[in-house]
Amino acid sequence: MQQDKCYKILGRYLRQHLFTALVFLGFIGIFGIVFQLYDLETEAVFYSAGLCSLFAAAVLSVHFFFYIKNHRERIRILKNIRFLADELPEPKTLAEDDLSGMIHELKRILEISETERQMERKESLDYYTTWVHQIKTPISTMKMVLESEDTDEHRELLAELFRIEQYVEMVLSYLRLGSETSDYMFKEYDLDRIIRQAIHKYASQFIRRKIQLKYDGVNRKVLTDEKWLLFIIEQILSNSIKYTPQGSVTISVTPDKILKISDTGIGIAAEDIPRIFDKGFTGYNGRSNKKSTGIGLYLCKTAADRLSHKISVESEPGVGTSVFIDLHTDKLTLE
């Protein structure tokens, strides 16, 4: 493979200097004709031509060596162009100088575009952050009004209002995860405390849907970001409640720090499992009940990757679904 690459480079080198080679051969031909016209000995003609050819071969060998060396240096810069854009070789010809000018102008345009994009994204994030906080006020007011009277109608409206809150928070999470800046705070947290926060949030939904929750508590410390791990657990519990008409949801943690959330719901079709973490993918269940956005599990996978956690799913239609979150964080260390 390496030999084939060298042959390709040699072929390109010869094509690049084909004109020079033809001129050189033309010179040899002219000198040969002149020598012949002056009746010089043939041996002298061939001797001169041979010396010129040897000299040309030596010069071209050295030139080809530096040709390959410069090519490898450009490849190195190309592979790390984001960090080495200012280390381009100095142009040696007018053509190289023109190309260098084009590259620097494109770099300048790209930097301006990237700055504008970052500013627009920041403004968008600031706007939606403000919007989320503002929208929570009327939602809280509506919740207080609905909780003032315990009727079937009010309980139904509270459930729908709860879904609205989820979608509002999902908007903000979506924007934050898409941002290159991070608000992560990694340290060791009490896993039981995080899980119980998620359970408390969805307690009313478990009661309303008459779904049994099985959780005995765990005594585990995990290196993670509390806010984003809580977000992942909440999204999984939300899906479990949504797709479990009756039965139970079980939360457990294995000795090797794998958080398992299982339900006895409708399950996921085997052909859908490889794509459930894809952005916008709803699958058969989402299309049938028209309640899925295809964003929740995508955000879970994105957040888990940022936390260096691994998330996977096992499911069987009609039996239930289990979500596994590997809480090992080999890539993270506490300072």
Structural account:
Helices cover 63% and strands 12% of the residues. By secondary structure, it is α+β, with helices and mostly antiparallel strands. The chain folds into two domains: 2-89, no CATH class; 189-335, Heat Shock Protein 90 (2-Layer Sandwich). A five-stranded mixed β-sheet has the order 2-4-5-7-6, with helices on one face. A two-stranded antiparallel sheet has the order 1-3. Strand 6 and strand 7 (320-326) form a beta hairpin. The radius of gyration is 34 Å and the shape is elongated.
CATH top level label of the largest domain: Alpha Beta
Number of domains: 2
Fourth-level CATH superfamily of the largest domain: Histidine kinase-like ATPase, C-terminal domain
Secondary-structure element string: HHHHHHEHEEHEEHHEE
**In CATH terms, what is the architecture of the largest domain?**
2-Layer Sandwich
Largest sheet: 5 strands, mixed
Broad structural category: alpha+beta
Q: Report low-confidence residues grouped into runs of 5 or more.
A: none
Overall 3D form: elongated
Q: How many extended strands?
A: 7
Spatial strand order of the main sheet: 2-4-5-7-6
- Share of helix among residues? 55-70%
Distance between the termini: 45 Å
CATH topology of the largest domain: Heat Shock Protein 90
Query: Radius of gyration, rounded?
Result: 34 Å
